[in-house]
Amino acid sequence: MISLTRQSKKIVIFSSILIGLLIISAIIMLVFWSNNGPGNSLSWILAVIILFALISAVLMIILIVKRRRYSSFLRNDYYEVYERIVTALENSTLSIFERREILLDISELLLEAQEKKRQVSSVIEDNIEDFIGRIKLSYGYRNSVVFNILSGIQNFIFVLTIVQVAIFLIRQTYPFFETTIGLMILPYMFLLSFLLLPLLKYLISRQKIIWFIIAFIIALVSLVSLFLGSNELLRRFGSDIVWVQTYFEKEITFISSWLIVIILILIMLSSWLAKWFMRHQSIKKMKATW
Amino acid sequence: MTENTQLIRGILEGCILALIRKRESYGYWIVEKLRESGFSDIQESTVYPILNRLEKRGLFIGRRKPSKLGPPRKYYSISNKGIAELERFAKIWKIIKNNVDIILRGN
């Protein structure tokens, strides 16, 4: 049986609540729609949602088990510190290979120190975030505006693709390349990609789980309120204005052909390449500190 | 002694280069040697990012080997670039030490 640290317990509780809420609301909607709703056309989508929620639950357990792979011999305080490092790393901008490399090194260092019966506080400083920050610097990561913009572009493409896929699955009436997205949701997707996702990632990486939950709920409520409130105001006071009409009525197709798919893949790849190049240059510029 | 000052970290870089020049070494061994040499309150969390940084700059070559404790252990050996950097450090250190000694003796 795996013993969970406080950090893991928080993650498990929070994820379980989210998954539970998702399953309950999907079941309620299923029952409701089977009696009065828009027929059974959406029932299978809700079933897929439930399936995804269950898969997420299984993945969460696998993730926790996987975390123990290199750390199964770490005990008490040592494991607690290791968990905090894993959480900070998983939500950092480091690549999956770099994270694996760092975890191998750190678990080895911790195991050695544990063998010598040293206090964990003499091995790793209390401020894990500073420690991870220095590791990131050693890998050439700098907190630059260009780097963050490139990440935002990648988020934006990812979010819009997910939205188009979701709308395609819900409507089921048009081919995928003709599935349209309302122009009015674009500003919110922009906010989500460039502001909210980076903020949530930052809060997790800084181990501020409570702040993350608060920010998550506030972000969700604010986005929905902003969407409904601004739409209501615009409808009430600006319905004669041309751009407001366009904003409400215009539908766009984000991924409209295979050519666009190729272009989007190229943008994603070039963003990754640009980020890699920036880091490479940053490493080249590193000088001795003496 | 405050471990994380820029000065200490700079000096540690030179010391780590010197330790690794003597023999192929791994993280924990390097920390132990530093502790034995007088950096008694040095932590692994101070040394590890420095090792990484020096490796990324091409001053070390890292190689993983199996370890009895569990995960494979990374061993570092010095590169030609590292040797040149160590010689530069030794030269600068000699000048700084000399200058500071003169001032301290004068006081």
Count of domains of chain B:
1
Hey, which two chains have the biggest interface?
A-B, 31 and 36 residues
The secondary-structure element order of chain B is HEHHEEH
What integer is the average pLDDT of chain B? 88
Multimer state: heterodimer
Q: What would you report as the Rg of chain A, rounded to the nearest angstrom?
A: 23 Å
Side by side, the strands of the main sheet of chain A go: 1-2
Structural class of chain A: mainly alpha
Distance between the termini of chain B: 23 Å
Estimate percent helicity of chain B.
55-70%
- At the fourth level of CATH, the homologous superfamily of chain B is Winged helix-like DNA-binding domain superfamily/Winged helix DNA-binding domain
C-alpha Rg of chain B (nearest Å): 15 Å
Tally of helical segments of chain B:
4
Please explain how this structure is put together.
The complex is a heterodimer of chains A (290) and B (107). Chain A is mostly helical and 290 residues long. Among the domains of chain A are: 1-67; 71-139, no CATH class. Chain A has ten helices and two strands, in the order H-H-H-H-H-H-E-H-H-H-E-H. Chain A starts with 5 loop residues before the first helix and ends in a 5-residue tail after the last helix. The longest helix of chain A is centred in the first third of the chain and has 30 residues, at 6-35. Chain B is 63% helix and 18% strand. Chain B has a three-stranded antiparallel beta sheet with strand order 1-3-2. In chain B, strand 2 (60-67) and strand 3 form a beta hairpin. In chain B, helix 2 (27-36) crosses helix 3 (44-56). Chain B starts with 5 loop residues before the first helix and ends with a helix. The model of chain B has no long low-confidence stretch (mean pLDDT 88). The A-B interface holds A 70, 72-73, 104-113, 115, 122-125, 130-131, 134-135, 137-140, 283, 286, 288-290 and B 4, 6, 9-11, 13-14, 26-28, 31, 41, 43-46, 48-50, 52-53, 56-57, 64, 67, 69-74, 85, 88-89, 92-93.
